[in-house]
C-alpha cells in the first residue's frame, strides 16, 4: 500500500520533459521494485531500447538501479539506504543517464530517494558517566551527548526526555548550527550521604510515525563534599569510676559519626578543657575515642569530673560532647581519732557518768565508707557516746574502786562501715586516784598473847598488825591503845602500843599469882582525812612460873621447934602417924606436890605417902627401937 502511494508520488514527479526524467522513491524498497517505466516516460519504444543498446551511465547510484530493457522499466537493483547514500543531505537523489546508440541519445534521470523512518535515534556511547560533587549548586549544567538519528526531516531526532527527574531536568538548546544541544540541569541538590549513585535514562525520540526512540544510561556518581560535621552518638556520656582505679583503665569510648566519605569522614578526638589538670588524669585515643585513665583519682579531692571532648573531621568540622564521670568512693581512708581532751586521773569516788575524754572522729570517705562506729575495750566500766555536736565522749559507767583497779588502759577503736572495714584505735591511760574509803583492818579478829610472869618491864609481847587497802597517807596506819582499866588500874600501866609498829610492850612485870589475864582494845587508825579506824580486842594471858615453894600447913610448926607425934608400941604395920599437908600457890605442875622422906632415924620404920603425905609405919615397933625417932 505504502509502496503504491510512493509510486503514485513517483508518477507525479515524472518530468515528461524530453531528455530528462525524475522519479522519487522511498528508500529501502526491495530488490526488483519498480522505480518507473522509463521507456514510456521517455517516449521510447521497447525496440529502440534494445537496438539502441540502451544502458545506464553510472552516476553515483549505478549499483542501486537496473534497467529492464525488455519491459522498459527502471528497477531497484540493490536496496537503497538513503542514509548510506546521502547521510544527512537532502534532498537525496541518484543522478544517472540512459545512453542509446544509433543515434546516440542520452537522457538524464534523477531518482530522488525519500526518507523513511528506518533509523531510531542512537547514542554513540552505551552509557554516560558523570562524577558530580554533592556540593554542586542548583542550576549546574552538564552537557549530555547528543543522539544521532540518520533519518532526516520529520524522521530525524525530535526531542529528548530524562527519567527520573528527581534531581535533574533537561534543557534543550538549539546551537548555532541548528542542532539541539542537550543539557542536564541540577534541579535539586545531591546528597551523597543519601544517594551515592544515580542512574538516569535519557531517551531520544524522532518525529517519525511510528515514533522510534533510543536510550542511554547516565550514571551519576555523587562525589563527597565535607558537608557533614562529625556527630557524637550522645551529647552527654556518663560513667562511673572507682577512685584509685589503675592507671591505664579504659573508661569508655565515645563515638562521633561523620557521614562524609574518605578524609571528610575521618574523625579525630581530643579532650578540650581549660583545666590543665584534666590532661594529667585523662587521655583520649584520637583515633578511636577511647578514654583512658592516666592519673590518680581521689574521691576525696573530686567527686565528679566533667570533660569536653571534641571530634574533628579532616575538613575541620567539629562537634563536641560532654563526659560526666562519677567517682565512686573506695574505703581508702581510715577513721582518724582526735583526742581533744582527756583526764589523766579521776578519784575513785567519782560520780557515775563522769566524762574522762572527749574526742572527734573523722573519716574522709563517704557514705558507709565514712560512717564510723566506736567502741571500747572495756565497755563495762566505760561507755562511749556520740554527742549531738558530732563528738564522742567517754564516760564512766560503773563505780570505780582504786583498790580493785588503779589504772585503766581504755582502748577506743573506731571502725568504718566500709567493706572491708578500716579502723584505728587509741589507748588512753586513766589513773584512779585514792580516796580514803577503807579503814585499816586487823589481820585477826582478836588477839591472844602469852607472857610469862616475872617478865622484865618493857618486854615486847607481840605485835598487832592492821592493813589498809588505801594508798599512801590513807593507808598509813597508827596503833592506839584504847583507854580501859584492869582491876581498877588504867591498862596503860600494864601495856603500851607502839604507834608505828603495833608492837605491844609490857609496862610492868606480871605476877601470875596476882593476875592471870586481862583484856584491852587496840585501835588502828589511818592517816586519811577524815581518818578511818577499827579496833581489835587483845587478851594477854600471863603464864605461871614456879616461883613459890610448897608450904607445909600441917603439922603446924612454930618458930623452928619440932613437931612431936606419939606412936604406941603396939602400933601395927601401916599405922598412920600423921599426915603432912602442904600447899603451893603456883599453878599446875608448879603446884603439884609430892612428899619424900628426907632424913629418918630408922628408914625401915616409916614411910611417907608420895602423893598424900601420910606417914605410916612399915613394920611393927619393937622394944629395941629407940624411943625417939626423928623424921625430916
Ligand atoms: C588508639 O587506638 C588505635 C586503634 O585501636 C590503636 O592502634 C592505637 O595504638 C591507639 N593509640 C594509643 C596512643 O593508644
Ligand atoms: C549516735 O549514736 C546513735 C546510737 O548510739 C545513732 O543512732 C546515731 O546515729 C549516732 N549519731 C551520730 C551523729 O553518729
Ligand atoms: C596499761 O598500759 C601500760 C603501758 O603500756 C602498761 O604498763 C600497763 O600495765 C597497762 N595497764 C593495764 C591495767 O593493763
Ligand atoms: C570498837 O569496834 C567496835 C566494832 O568493831 C565498835 O562497835 C566500837 O565502838 C569500837 N570501840 C571503840 C572504842 O572505838
TrEMBL record:
Pfam families hit by this protein: Cadherin, Cadherin_2
> Does Disulfide bond count among this protein's keywords?
no
Sorted alphabetically, the Gene Ontology BP terms of this entry are:
anatomical structure morphogenesis; homophilic cell adhesion via plasma membrane adhesion molecules
SMART domains, alphabetized: CA
**Any GO CC annotation of this UniProt entry:** plasma membrane
- UniProt membrane topology term: Single-pass type I membrane protein
Top-level division of the source organism's lineage = Eukaryota
Signal peptide, first to last residue: 1-19
Query: Principal localization?
Result: membrane
* Keyword tags: Calcium, Cell adhesion, Cell membrane, Glycoprotein, Membrane, Repeat, Signal, Transmembrane, Transmembrane helix
Q: Extract the PROSITE patterns matched here.
A: CADHERIN_1, CADHERIN_2
The Cadherin domain covers which part of the protein? 24-123, 124-232, 233-337, 345-442, 443-552
Query: What Gene3D superfamilies does this protein map onto?
Result: Cadherins (2.60.40.60)
Q: Output the InterPro entries linked to this UniProt entry.
A: Cadherin-like_dom, Cadherin-like_sf, Cadherin_CS, Cadherin_N, Protocadherin/Cadherin-CA
Q: Which GO terms describe its molecular function?
A: calcium ion binding
Q: Where does it reside?
A: Cell membrane
What does it do?
Answer: Potential calcium-dependent cell-adhesion protein. May be involved in the establishment and maintenance of specific neuronal connections in the brain.
What is the name of this protein?
Answer: Cadherin domain-containing protein
Q: In which organism is this protein found?
A: Gasterosteus aculeatus aculeatus
Amino acid at each position: 500500500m505504502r509502496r503504491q502511494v510512493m509510486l503514485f508520488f513517483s508518477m507525479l514527479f515524472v518530468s515528461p520533459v524530453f531528455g530528462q526524467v525524475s522519479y522519487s522513491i522511498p528508500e529501502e524498497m526491495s530488490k526488483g521494485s519498480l522505480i518507473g517505466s522509463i521507456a514510456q516516460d521517455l517516449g521510447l519504444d521497447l525496440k529502440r531500447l534494445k537496438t539502441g543498446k540502451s544502458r545506464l551511465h553510472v552516476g553515483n547510484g549505478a549499483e542501486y538501479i537496473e534497467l529492464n530493457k525488455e519491459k522498459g522499466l527502471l528497477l531497484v537493483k540493490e536496496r537503497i539506504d538513503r542514509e548510506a547514500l546521502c547521510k544527512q543531505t537532502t534532498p537525496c537523489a541518484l543522478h544517472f543517464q540512459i545512453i542509446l546508440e544509433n543515434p546516440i541519445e542520452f537522457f538524464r534521470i534523477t531518482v530522488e530517494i525519500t526518507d523513511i523512518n528506518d533509523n531510531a535515534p542512537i547514542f554513540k556511547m552505551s552509557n554516560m558517566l558523570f562524577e558530580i560533587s554533592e556540593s554542586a549548586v542548583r542550576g549546574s549544567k552538564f552537557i549530555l551527548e547528543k543522539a544521532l538519528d540518520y533519518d532526516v526531516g520529520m524522521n530525524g531526532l525530535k526531542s529528548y526526555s530524562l527519567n527520573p527527574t528527581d534531581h535533574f531536568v533537561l534543557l534543550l538548546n538549539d546551537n548555532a548550527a541548528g542542532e539541539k544541544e542537550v543539557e542536564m540541569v541540577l534541579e535539586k541538590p545531591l546528597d551523597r550521604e543519601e544517594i551515592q549513585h544515580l542512574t538516569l535514562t535519557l531517551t531520544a525520540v524522532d518525529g517519525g510515525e511510528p515514533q522510534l526512540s533510543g536510550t542511554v544510561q547516565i550514571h551519576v556518581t555523587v562525589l563527597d563534599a565535607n558537608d557533614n560535621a562529625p556527630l557524637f552518638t550522645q551529647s552527654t556520656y556518663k560513667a562511673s569510676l572507682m577512685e584509685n582505679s589503675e592507671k591505664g583503665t579504659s573508661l569508655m569510648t565515645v563515638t562521633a559519626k561523620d557521614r562524609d566519605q574518605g578524609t571528610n569522614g575521618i574523625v579525630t578526638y581530643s579532650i578540650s578543657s581549660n583545666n590543665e589538670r584534666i590532661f594529667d588524669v585523662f587521655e583520649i585515643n584520637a583515633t578511636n575515642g577511647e578514654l583512658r585513665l592516666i592519673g590518680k583519682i581521689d574521691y576525696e579531692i573530686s567527686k565528679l569530673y566533667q570533660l569536653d571532648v571534641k571530634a574533628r573531621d579532616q575538613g575541620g568540622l567539629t562537634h563536641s560532647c560532654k563526659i560526666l564521670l562519677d567517682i565512686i568512693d573506695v574505703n581508702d581512708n581510715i577513721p582518724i581519732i582526735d583526742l581533744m581532751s582527756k583526764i589523766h586521773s579521776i578519784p575513785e569516788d567519782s560520780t557515775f557518768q563522769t566524762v574522762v575524754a572527749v574526742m572527734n572522729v573523722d573519716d574522709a570517705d563517704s557514705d558507709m565508707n565514712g560512717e564510723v562506729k566506736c567502741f571500747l575495750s572495756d565497755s563495762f566500766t566505760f561507755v562511749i557516746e556520740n554527742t549531738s555536736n558530732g563528738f564522742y565522749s567517754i564516760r564512766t559507767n560503773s563505780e570505780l574502786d582504786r583498790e580493785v583497779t588503779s589504772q585503766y588502759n581504755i582502748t577506743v577503736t573506731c571502725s568504718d562501715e566500709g567493706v572491708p572495714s578500716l579502723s584505728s584505735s587509741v589507748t588512753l591511760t586513766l589513773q584512779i586516784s585514792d580516796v580514803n574509803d577503807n579503814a585499816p583492818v586487823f589481820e585477826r579478829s582478836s588477839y591472844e598473847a602469852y607472857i610469862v610472869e616475872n617478865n622484865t618491864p618493857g618486854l615486847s609481847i607481840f605485835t598487832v598488825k592492821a592493813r589498809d587497802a588505801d594508798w599512801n597517807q590513807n593507808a598509813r596506819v597508827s596503833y592506839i591503845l584504847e583507854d580501859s582499866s584492869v582491876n581498877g588500874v588504867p591498862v596503860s600501866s600494864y601495856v603500851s602500843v607502839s604507834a608505828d609498829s603495833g608492837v605491844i610492850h609490857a609496862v610492868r612485870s606480871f605476877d601470875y599469882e596476882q593476875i592471870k589475864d586481862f583484856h584491852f582494845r587496840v585501835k588502828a587508825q589511818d592517816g586519811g582525812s577524815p581518818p578511818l579506824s577499827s579496833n581489835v580486842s587483845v587478851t594477854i594471858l600471863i603464864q605461871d612460873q614456879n616461883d613459890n615453894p610448897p608450904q607445909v600447913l600441917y603439922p603446924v610448926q612454930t618458930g623452928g621447934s619440932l613437931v612431936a607425934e606419939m606412936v604406941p608400941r603396939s602400933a601395927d604395920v601401916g599405922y598412920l602417924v600423921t599426915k603432912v599437908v602442904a600447899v603451893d600457890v603456883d599453878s599446875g605442875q608448879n603446884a603439884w606436890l609430892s612428899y619424900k622422906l628426907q632424913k629418918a632415924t630408922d628408914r625401915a620404920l616409916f614411910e611417907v605417902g608420895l602423893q598424900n603425905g601420910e606417914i605410916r609405919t612399915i613394920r611393927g615397933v619393937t622394944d629395941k627401937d629407940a624411943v625417939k625417932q626423928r623424921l625430916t
